[in-house]
UniProtKB/TrEMBL annotation, chains A, B, C, D:
This is Asparaginase domain-containing protein. Keywords: Hydrolase. GO terms for molecular function: asparaginase activity. It comes from Marinobacter azerbaijanicus. It comes from the Bacteria. Residues 2-150 form the L-asparaginase N-terminal domain. InterPro entries: Asp/glu_Ase-like_sf, Asparaginase/glutaminase-like, L-asparaginase_N, L-asparaginase_N_sf. Its EC number is 3.5.1.1.
Length: 160, 160, 160, 160
């Protein structure tokens, strides 16, 4: 059983013409999994719809509590990329679970997006990794204690 | 470095109106990886464009030879789902590599397809699995020696 | 009010992996109109789901009867391209209506398809044309009495 | 021959993760026409890439001059929806041409967008309308002198 918690981020952005801008919308996760022929063995809960630059300590505590409380041993969290590492590090205190955070550089609602690849990638990571907290982005798995987002290159990379 | 070999299958089918049917076309792999923000660290070779029901022993030997000969330790093979297990088993003699076979139930060229999820899933499987031959389909990893395609349910499942 | 009758054709084809082939499925028309922000002022009826090479005289009579009987003055018919002209010509006896037939060379369910462009094109043709029967394909409007499908070029063209 | 001038607007917006926002990008027009099986009989020129709330009198004069100077009798202009009517009205002085303005409420780069339907709709309008200036949006044709954008309903409608 995989428990999916969605918190917002670019992956879930929707374009609102009335405001001439995007806003974080409903998670597309359920629809993307169905399209990908994944029909059972998971549960999806929307925790919040935040741009990750706006995540607060309370938000991170709410995520930690939900992850900690759930029965599943494997947890996928979709999250904005800007502070994915911070949220990941706040989850290091949770034991007995494999926790993978992923997101996307392009909203899942775009014709061309990294969202579905990243979700599939994270899904396999959840099946195969030992307990711990990981970031799954740009086709690589990173332990959350040794990764950062390189803003200039717009990619995640290992720190020494 | 991930070596990608494409052999055809549903994943690469194209619709030809002149023939009123779908035929295996060029692999979409390069385009899908670029959309998914995966830009380096891999090489793609199209070995053949076959519906997997039409794969012969010569075809399987050609695949085995290409996999065996390549320098990479991680090999992804896209393949039709009907005989993916047979081709996988014929690769058990190749040592020193992690080999993952994947494909799709819906062509990658469809608006709704499991192709990109499966490719992302297989990409992570390649990063994390020890040497051996595996099938990555419907969100699970199977050792090739203990999996079969359940035609009725249209899913891959473990055999005892 | 626009009355939409769907009869099948490439535009509605779906890929069925179990059969390794396409088949005509439910019309995607309602979904495509909603995506295109067209939410009212029309009604959709699925008359049949046929590859147009398999349309019979009874099928064409059923189409003619439905068109003739409906209250709307503007009628859109989605149809396979191979015998679209024949069906169009069988509708010349219907008076007092603007009837436009369209379809697609690539199923609407493909990522890249002419389906939505053709539907939008036909929608405007319905708003602007006088009573009569027309084919709207490859970005042109043809009177049904002077058009044919050029099989080699895979395009519709005017006959002298 | 249809002359296409692109000026920006929602239809051409691209999502830039680095800025956490959508910005007007290259026009997707050429790619959308090719997907729609429209391969010749048109020319595309990018005049500017502006959100229409930022169009100035100089911008409108540049559009008017380009339209006026071109040889084609049929001109399609893609434009942001917020001030499409203003730009349309500034073109009423151009004679001897059928000019249709269209755009989209959702960027063409989204999986679900009204962009392709609107372009197809406008293409037919160009084939069928007499000389003059028109807005083609939400499945209707409006003479530019008697239309406005209803901001609340997010639709174009006829004024008395």
């Amino acid at each position: 059983m995989i428990e999916v918690f969605t918190t917002g981020g670019t992956i879930d952005k929707v374009y609102f013409d009335a405001n001439s801008e995007f806003e974080v919308g409903d998670s597309l996760m359920g629809e993307l999994l169905a399209e990908s022929n994944i029909r059972d063995g998971f549960s999806i809960t929307g925790l919040m719809r935040k741009d990750s630059l706006e995540m607060t300590d309370e938000d991170r505590e709410a995520v930690r509590a939900a992850v900690s409380r759930c029965a599943a041993e494997r947890v996928l969290i979709t999250h904005g990329t800007d502070t994915m590492v911070e949220t990941g590090r706040s989850l290091l205190s949770v034991t007995g679970k494999t926790i993978v955070l992923t997101g996307a550089m392009q909203p899942a609602r775009m014709r061309r997006s990294d969202a579905i690849f990243n979700i599939g990638f994270a899904w396999a990571a959840l099946r195969l990794l030992p307990h711990g907290v990981y970031i799954a982005m740009n086709g690589e798995v990173f332990e959350v204690g040794s990764v950062r987002k390189n803003l200039k290159a717009q990619r995640f990379e290992r720190t020494s």
